[in-house]
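Why do we care about 3D structure at all? Because function follows from shape, and shape follows, mostly, from sequence. That is the central idea of this module. The next example makes it concrete: a single protein chain, its amino acid sequence, and then its structure expressed as tokens.
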Amino acid sequence: MEKEAIIQVRDLVTYYGNRQILKGVNLDIYRGEILVILGRSGCGKSTLLRHLIGLMKPSRGQILIKGRDITTMNEDEMREILKKIGMLFQGAALFNSMTVGENVALPLREHTQLEDSTIQIMTRIKLDLVGLAGFENFKPSQLSGGMKKRAGLARALAMDPEILFCDEPSAGLDPVVAMGIDQLILKLKNAFKMTIVVVTHELASVFTIADRIAMLHEGEIIFQGTAEEIQNSKHPIVQQFLNREADDVEPDREKYLHSLVKS
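And the structure:
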């Protein structure tokens, strides 16, 4: 059976001033899969993510979500699309002045007409789903790093999204806590058949959660495939990344000495 592409990226190009960040990115994201966008810092991962959730407009190209091009939408149209999209930000992005429960309930209060009692019930359900039952009255400052990520994930799930985006979900966490976040992402995918897009450079997470991997390098996708396929890739940049090999930064001694003489 042919897979259904719920998100289609076509010839996406982005400039910051005169600097080109994305160089004609093409990517299909299929319904019900976990796609990991992989790459080193500065490769364009975060820029691509900001485009996918509508925070930035590209210089040119298309992003089709369920067949609709979000790059040409007005604010009202985009707001309707965003109601079916959840976003876990890298630092969880919780409001410190609110309790955990108030943070999770915020999307429901902003975008629905539900009664307060219903919102409270749904908030507790989402907190229980991520393993934070009983923490609704805590402030974010009272939570550990892993718990903040779980609270941010509960908020991202508040509106029962079809698509979930996660920006570096295990960054800054110890390996045991990071594995817990990875297992939670897998649980969400299997339980709710959710489409999940994860941006990361953490290889341990990649090989735990990914159905497919898209690797970015200098604004271009240089690999698309499964975890097994990326390990068998012969692409030198892919191999360098997987083997954690540093770039050759050995200075040219002759050029350095020559520059000293000239100066």
